[in-house]
Structure formats: C-alpha cells, structure tokens
TrEMBL record:
UniProt xrefs under InterPro entries: Cro/C1-type_HTH, HTH_LacI, Lambda_DNA-bd_dom_sf, Peripla_BP_I, SBP_2_dom
Ranges in coiled-coil conformation: 75-116
SUPFAM superfamilies per UniProt: lambda repressor-like DNA-binding domains (SSF47413), Periplasmic binding protein-like I (SSF53822)
Organism: Candidatus Cetobacterium colombiensis
PROSITE patterns: HTH_CROC1, HTH_LACI_2
Protein name (record): LacI family DNA-binding transcriptional regulator
Pfam families referenced in this protein's UniProt entry, alphabetically: LacI, Peripla_BP_4
Domain HTH cro/C1-type: 3-50
Domain HTH lacI-type: 2-56
GO molecular function: DNA binding
Keywords: Coiled coil, DNA-binding, Transcription, Transcription regulation
Length: 331
C-alpha cells in the first residue's frame, strides 16, 4: 500500500502538504495540489486511514477547546488541521466539535470546559490557559476520556503537542543578532503574557542573546501595549538598531511606520497576513513561526489513535516543525 510519506518523499515535500492535498484543503497552492493528486493516482494511493477499511458503528464525540487571538491565522490553521483529520477518519464515525474562547479570558475557558464535561464525550483536545485549574478539573476523569493538550503538558502520563515556542524565540534571537551590528544594541519589549506563547518566546529570545553576549535594552515591560504604543518610542535610543517584541509586533511596527520611526531591524515570532505584508515591504526581516495546521492535525490524529489503538505509550510528546520565513521564502 502506498503511503502519504512515500508520496511526500517522491515529490520532496512534507507529509503534511500531501495530507492537505488529499483531504481537499484550500490551504495549499493549486499547482502543488495537482502534482500530489496526479502522483497519488499514478502510484495507486488509496485513502485508507491506518490500513483499515472497517467503519466503526459507535460514533465518537471529540470536543476541541481552542483559543482565538488577534493572530487570526493561529486559530484558523489549527482548525483546518483538525477538520482535515476529521474528514480523513469520517468512516469511523468520529465528530470533532470545535469550541473557541478568547486568549485573554482563562475564566471563560474554565466555564466552557465544565459545561462540556456535563455531557458525554469520548475525547478532549484543549489548549489550556490556566493550566492548574484545567488539571484540577480533569484529574478525576483523565482515565475515563482521552485527552490531548496543545502547547502545555497537563499530565506526566498524557499526550501533548509541544509547540516549541521557546526554541522559536531562540531562533528569532539568533537571526536578529546576526543582522544587527555588534556595536549596536537590540531593544526588547515585553508586551505581556498571553498564557500560551509570549513568555516562552521572550525567554528563548533573551537566552539566545545572552549566550551570544549581545547588548540589549530590556526586556522592557509595557502594560496594555496596544493602548500605549507611544511608550515604545521612549526607548528608541540612538544606539538601538534592532527591535524585538514578544507580542503585538505587527501593530507596533505599523504604528512606528506611521510616525516615521520604523527604520530599525525587526524580527518577529508568529505569522499572519499583517506580518506577511511587513516582510514583503521590507519592514520585517524575518519571522519564526510554528506549523499550526500540523498542530491541529497531529492533535486529532493522536486522539484518534488513543480511541482506537491500545498499544500507545502512556506518555507521549509530539513536536511539530518550525518555519523560518524571509521575503524570499514567502509564497
């Protein structure tokens, strides 16, 4: 039987890209999709998940509690990954119900989690905001339902998708350190904690600069940054050449452009259409972002395996890839 991995190797692309094409995802170039579908037909690929054609009579309900932020691409791509996985395993009667809470409202997520658990579900995928409260709620039932967490591990014997945010911050620090003159400084703005990635980005970035013995100003904490954009200018001293923000980078860079103070070297973390535009217009050198589509797809795949396979290890960590995007590498 021809596998997706074999198709990917033949074309020199990732298995995730192959899965997107075979599942009819719109999140892929049309010419790439055509090549994949053509090769799949030529090699006799059959869409038959995990080598089984048996449909499962009992339907399984999986609830995914995800978070939405100003970066619309983050949630959209995780959802696309989950939806593609659901399509791939639809013969098994699996339904994935996606619920959303705001990244800044951990209390609302707890309410939604409690409400979700009032009904019978077979599996739970969650991006936990208040980790300790989520653990307290799930501890009594963690052996009754299958649980996969994204971004944070909940239990030592659990399955989670490691987003590697700290590593992404380190890569961003390495890039910026290499493009800023050694006799110049890098301004680091701490725009707060989004309870998922921003603090890890910041730690990785600062650790890398310290390892490289690069001079930096900060991290400077500016609370409620979006309403206090002008405060960034207080730290743009003459010896500053590079600037890094762990949160709200596109909005602040756009603001600095409006007041004609964006003549600095910026490297960011994360990716959305605003960042794409800033890179294309030479306002941002590069961004380092996680593969959010594959986080969703992998989370769905692993909870499927927990439901239908009995030979999984008790503790599993899955890491998805990191993308480094410069102007030349944008689609």
């Amino acid at each position: 039987m021809v596998t997706q991995a074999e198709l990917a190797k033949k074309l020199g692309i990732t298995r995730t890209t192959v899965a997107r094409a075979l599942n009819g995802s719109k999140n892929i170039k049309s010419e790439t999709k055509e090549k994949i579908l053509k090769l799949a037909e030529e090699m006799g690929y059959e869409k038959n998940y995990l080598g089984s054609s048996l449909a499962i009579k009992e339907k399984k309900l999986i609830t995914a509690i995800l978070v939405k932020s100003m970066n619309e691409d983050y949630l959209k791509n995780i959802k696309n990954g989950l939806k593609d996985l659901q399509e791939e395993v639809k013969a098994y009667g699996i339904k994935i119900k996606i619920l959303e809470t705001d990244i800044n409202d951990s209390a609302e997520q707890i309410k939604l989690l409690n409400k979700t658990l009032e009904k019978k579900i077979h599996g739970l995928i969650i991006t936990p905001l208040d980790k300790e409260k989520v653990i307290k709620i799930l501890q009594p039932i963690k052996d009754e339902i299958k649980i996969v967490s994204i971004g944070r591990q909940l239990f030592d014997s659990g399955v989670y998708i490691d987003s590697k945010y700290e590593k992404s911050g380190r890569i961003a620090g390495d890039i910026l350190a290499n493009v800023v003159n050694k006799n110049k400084k890098i301004l680091v703005i701490d725009a707060g904690d989004d309870l998922i990635s921003s603090k890890k980005y910041l730690k990785g970035f600062c650790d890398k600069l310290n390892e490289l013995d690069r001079s930096m100003i900060g991290p400077i904490n500016i609370e409620n940054l979006l309403n206090n954009k002008n405060k960034v200018t207080d730290y743009l001293l003459e010896d500053i050449e590079g600037v890094y923000l762990n949160r709200y980078a596109p909005e602040i860079i756009e603001y600095l452009g409006e007041i004609k103070k964006d003549n600095y070297k910026f490297v960011t973390n994360g990716f959305n259409e605003k960042i794409r535009g800033l890179i294309k217009n030479n306002k941002v050198i590069a961004t380092v972002s996680e593969d959010f589509y594959n986080q969703g797809y992998t989370a769905g795949k692993k909870i499927f395996e927990l439901l239908y396979k009995m030979d999984l290890k008790k503790s599993q960590e899955y890491q998805t890839k990191i993308d480094i995007l410069f102007k030349e590498s944008l689609d």
